[in-house]
Structure formats: structure tokens, C-alpha cells
Amino acid sequence: MDCPPTEAVEMEKIAYRIFKGEELKDDEFIPHVKLFPDNLRYKTKCDAHAISFFDTADKAREVYKEGLARNKNLGNFIAEVVIKQQSGKVLYTISSGHLSLWMYANWNPEMFEMTELAPIS
Predict the structure, then answer these.
(1) How far apart are alpha carbons 71 and 25 in whole angstroms?
(2) pLDDT digits (tens, 9 = 90+) for 46-84
(3) By C-alpha distance, which of 90, 69, 81 is closest to 25?
(4) Domains in the chain, start-ordered, CATH in brackets?
(5) Do 83 and 101 touch, CB atoms closer than 8 A?
(6) Contacts of 98 (CB under 8 A, 6+ apart)
(7) Beta bridge partners of 77
(8) CA-CA distance, 77 to 110, in Å (whole number)?
């Protein structure tokens, strides 16, 4: 598995993520492969090793609403976060507004700057 993909690059970018709580904490940034360790499909799916961000708050809100339609509450807030280059490798799919971040092993929440936090409404 080529993970992260070779097209993924370090970048500094403002992005939006759905948060459950109101703080920059480790548990807001857990990839699916760790959230669902019994799901064997995730072990070989590169995207499952990344965490998702969106390029606009509206796109994050749209994904939140799609989750609700599938009976999944993804969180309570939308955080505006500055992804820093030293955080990891990012694959930005402009057409969908989705960013996948594969975090470096030394990553910690202080490597991000949260510039805004708003309740999802």
C-alpha cells in the first residue's frame, strides 16, 4: 500500500473539521483505522489512516447533514484549523473540497492553530 499517496504533500492551509468537543485534543484527530480496529477493510485502505478536513465550513456542514441522514452524529462543532506543514502529508481533492491528512508520528494538537469554533446549526 502506497500510503500516504505520492501526490500528498506538506502544506499550510486553513481547513474545517467537525469536532465533538470545544478543544484541540488528541481525541478529535483519530483516524478510522484506530477508531474501528476490528474493521479489517480499514487496515488496507489508505484513506482510513488519514483524518478528514474540508476546504469550507459549508462543506463540513454538508457532510455533517449527510451523516445525520445515515443516523450518524459526527460532532457538535465546526472548527476552523490551520494545518501546519510539520503536521503531515495532505491530499487535497479540490473537486470535492476534501482534504485527507496523514499525520506524522510526532504530531500533536499544538501543531494546529484553531482560529474559530462554531456550533453546528
Answers:
(1) 25
(2) 999 999 999 999 999 999 999 888 888 889 999 999 999
(3) 81
(4) 13-119 (3.20.170)
(5) yes
(6) 52, 53, 54, 55, 59, 92
(7) 19, 119
(8) 19
Q: What secondary structure does DSSP assign to the chain, as a single string?
A: ---S-TT-B---EEEEEEESSSS--GGGS--HHHH-TT-HHHHH-GGGGSEEEESSHHHHHHHHHHHHHTT----SEEEEEEE-GGGEEEEEETTTTEEEEEE-TT--GGGSEEEEEEE--
The number of residues making up the chain comes to 121
**Grid cell locating 33:** 483505522
Question: pTM score, two decimals?
Answer: 0.91
Whether 82 and 12 have beta carbons less than 8 Å apart is answered as yes
